[in-house]
């Protein structure tokens, strides 16, 4: 990877996606408990519990080997890269995916009409599995004193594998990155 480009932490990207899925799941669970459904509340909760456990396992294991291979193949980040602060990554992901988040919430709430909180519990379980997988990567980073980064245009790490560029690594001090210019946007 040559030239100047921006990097965002893989852990921050995945944790943001996981937390968002968990919040969508919570909204779906609440909608399922409040709205009368075809399956009934009791059956919906039982189906949802099973679906949530399976979805959590899928979220935890789905691409774990792929991530391990990418992390093992990651090279040291070039000196010319720009590191994106975690709060900027979270804001960018929320802004870029706002429409999909809204569509996801509407679909999960609509699924509550048929299966009570089952759909919400499945989405929550998948997000929880992703969150645990993210914590495992963060644990690896601490143990190896290495941070793993991806290019900011690859921030949809749940998307197609072939469209995601190679990962890069830095030392642990790079995790304390802060915005370079504070208040520049307000002064304009």
Verbal overview:
It is a single chain. The chain is of the alpha/beta class. It has helices at residues 10-34, 41-61, 64-73, 86-96, 98-115, 118-144, 184-187; strands spanning 6-9, 75-76, 82-83, 147-151, 168-170. The protein is elongated. The protein starts with 5 loop residues before the first strand and ends with a helix.
User: What is the SS-derived class?
Assistant: alpha/beta
The helix content, as a percent range, equals 55-70%
Through-space gap between termini: 34 Å
- Spatial ordering of strands, largest sheet: 2-5-4-1-3
Number of beta-strand segments: 5
Quick synopsis:
The protein is of the alpha/beta class.
Helix-strand layout with pairing:
Layout: E1 6-9, H1 10-34, H2 41-61, H3 64-73, E2 75-76, E3 82-83, H4 86-96, H5 98-115, H6 118-144, E4 147-151, E5 168-170, H7 184-187
Parallel strand pairs: 1-3, 2-5
Antiparallel strand pairs: 1-4, 4-5
Helix pairs in contact: 1-4, 1-5, 1-6, 2-6, 5-6
């Amino acid at each position: 990877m040559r030239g100047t480009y921006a990097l965002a932490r893989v852990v921050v990207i995945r944790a943001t996606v996981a937390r968002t899925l968990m919040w969508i799941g919570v909204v779906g669970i609440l909608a399922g408990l409040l709205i009368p459904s075809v399956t009934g509340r009791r059956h919906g909760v039982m189906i949802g519990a099973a679906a949530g456990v399976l979805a959590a396992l899928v979220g935890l294991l789905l691409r774990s080997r792929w991530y391990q291979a990418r992390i093992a193949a990651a090279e040291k980040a070039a000196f010319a890269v720009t590191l994106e602060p975690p709060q900027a990554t979270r804001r960018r992901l929320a802004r870029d995916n706002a429409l999909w988040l809204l569509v996801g919430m509407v679909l999960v709430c609509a699924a509550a009409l048929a299966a009570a909180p089952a759909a919400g519990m499945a989405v929550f379980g998948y997000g929880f599995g992703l969150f645990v997988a993210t914590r495992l990567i963060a644990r690896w980073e601490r143990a190896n004193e290495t941070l793993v980064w991806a290019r900011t245009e690859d921030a949809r790490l749940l998307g197609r594998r072939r469209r995601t560029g190679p990962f890069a690594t830095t030392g642990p001090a790079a995790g304390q990155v802060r915005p370079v210019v504070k208040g520049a946007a307000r002064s304009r």
